[in-house]
Write a structure and sequence with these properties.
It contains five helices and 21 strands. The longest helix is centred in the middle third of the chain and has 15 residues.
């Protein structure tokens, strides 16, 4: 049995209020205790169903009030063996966050994370992110993430903004706070902004085919893959390959015509790209429609997560590919299904900066016994 107790943010309380008819009559707060198969998916609540696959029920105790402060969690594991968590999202790319700085290994296994990410039988999310102790002198902490399928990616752009906001909320950090975060993709440095957004120094793009990795033939500067043809599901896509510590295949055209997002069958072509043999470590795939040199629209099929509403590293890779193909400026707005990210590829330093939101949804405690 998984036992979860949750405290929702004010914004998401409004969503729940609309779904619980008697709640509006209460002046202060209302406690709902029921058996749900969905552990507070931020948009959907379904009552009294049972997971026939594992005979596993989820018991939820959720406190809802008109003023919802973020309560700092002193430890991720309580004396009763419960694990505290908070849920955040970056433009709809949503994650379960756990303060794991007390120990070097995540307190949950990949299999447990996969179950928690199930939107019907778990909390729901695109991944579970852990803040662990730093790996190097001068770093503040380490990021580890398990995707919704239990796999572990090198890094996640939206996830690292959520992680920075998560730690800032716990530690009471203010605007201007900068973090140095160790990841499997290297050191990443987010900075909290006055407007509540998070600006992240994402480091340098990797263009060498072997380091991305891809087996597509290099056709740029002796080692990169830019606008290279790739046959997928009976169509010829123009693909540029970029790594932001994790692999990306950027698609600006198909069969010689510019991409228009409403003609892309993402659920059909995305999985084929992800597992295509030319990407030995699989790949994230971004389809990009150009509005102007300073504005593009993008949708993504993420390796290990499928369709998501946003991808931070994908937005960064999108602009790298757009500049290399002569389609975008170095400063560009990237509209994703969940909202916009602002990307800058600084020519003097070669670094990429990403700016976007990270929002608290709810917090709680869970037992995976």
């Amino acid at each position: 049995m998984v036992v979860v107790s949750c405290l929702l943010s004010q914004q998401h309380c409004q969503t729940l209020t609309r779904r619980v008819s008697s709640l509006e009559d209460q002046r202060k707060s209302h406690v709902i205790s029921t058996t749900w198969n969905t552990v507070l998916n931020s948009n959907t609540y379904t009552s009294r169903q049972k997971d026939s696959r594992s005979d596993r029920r989820v018991v939820v105790s959720s406190t809802v009030s008109r003023s919802m402060p973020i309560v700092a969690a002193a430890s991720p594991v309580t004396s009763q063996g419960m694990v505290t968590f908070k849920k955040y999202h970056g433009l709809g790319n949503d994650f379960v966050l756990i303060d794991n700085r007390h120990t070097d290994e995540p307190v949950l296994t990949p299999e447990q994370a996969e179950r928690l990410c199930d939107r019907n039988f778990g909390i729901g999310g695109d991944g579970v992110i852990f803040a662990l102790p730093p790996q190097h002198t001068g770093s503040d902490f380490t990021m580890r993430i398990y995707n919704s399928d239990g796999s572990e990616p090198e890094m996640c752009g939206n996830g690292i903004r959520c992680l920075a906001k998560f730690i800032a909320d716990i530690d009471g950090a203010v605007a201007g706070q900068e973090y140095k975060i160790d990841t499997l993709a290297g050191l990443i440095q987010p900075v909290m902004q006055e407007d509540g957004q998070v600006r992240v120094d994402m480091g340098y793009p990797i263009l060498e085919a072997g380091a991305i990795p891809t087996t597509l033939e290099s056709n740029y500067d002796g080692q990169g893959v830019v606008a290279q043809s790739l046959e997928v599901a009976g169509k010829t896509y123009s693909v540029t390959c970029v790594s932001m510590g994790n692999p990306h295949a950027l698609v600006y055209s198909v069969d010689g015509a510019p991409i228009t997002l409403d003609t892309v069958d993402l659920f059909s072509v995305g999985p084929v790209f992800e597992s295509h043999p030319v990407f030995p470590a699989k790949t994230n795939t971004e389809f990009v429609e150009v509005v102007s040199p300073s504005h593009v629209k993008m949708m993504v099929w993420e390796r290990g997560a499928g369709r998501t509403l946003a991808c931070g590293t994908g937005a960064c890779a999108t602009i790298v590919a757009g500049v290399l193909e002569g389609k975008t400026d170095r400063n560009c707005r990237v509209d994703l299904p969940g909202g916009p990210l602002y990307i800058e590829w600084d020519e003097s330093s070669n670094k990429i900066y990403m700016t976007g939101p990270a929002e608290f949804v709810f917090e709680g405690v869970l037992s995976t016994h």
